[in-house]
Amino acid sequence: MLMSLQIATVCGYLLGSIPFGLVLTRMAGLGDIRKIGSGNIGATNVLRTGRKGLAFMTLIGDAGKGAFAALLFTHLAGVEQGIFAGGAAVIGHMFPIWLRFKGGKGVATTLGTLAAVNWIMGLCAALTWLVMALIFRISSLSALIAMIAAPLAAFFIANDPGAGWLGVFLAVIVWAAHHANIGRLLRGEEPKIGQKKKQSEEDSAPPEN
Which residues span the membrane (predicted)? Predict the structure, then answer.
């Protein structure tokens, strides 16, 4: 059991560390996405290139790697291994070994993982993000609220404590990764979806998703 958990964690991390945003933008001839906007390798920053298709593909890739890791190891070894693999995929996205442990903030990968572990939790998180994004048009705020909704849905709607505690763990690390965004939200300075940041903010802002 311990060995299978270790294998699931390592493989999940490696799957999560695939930088789809960086790979896709380079293949499209846009150069290094880390030198654009916030420096993020996720879909939010890819959208700042003006290439909506690439941003969508990045979103699917980032969400898909978390879902794939969780589903694969659930099928191969069991639910607990799937949970560990999915959680590790989020860590891999945020701290990829290939990019000197400087990745994104894990929102899309978290949503994919949550949906694979418990579809009710994933659906509630995704719908919460969508509704908040339509109302406020601020990606980080939508993500932060969705991270709160996810474990609540697992505990009180799906009655799945294992998924709920995974949701709590991922919510904590995603909120921690968004500390700079939270500061800008409190100051009313957080840019809206598709809006380019001021150069001073681009130089200092960490990745967003």
Answer: 6-25, 54-76, 82-99, 111-132, 138-158, 165-182
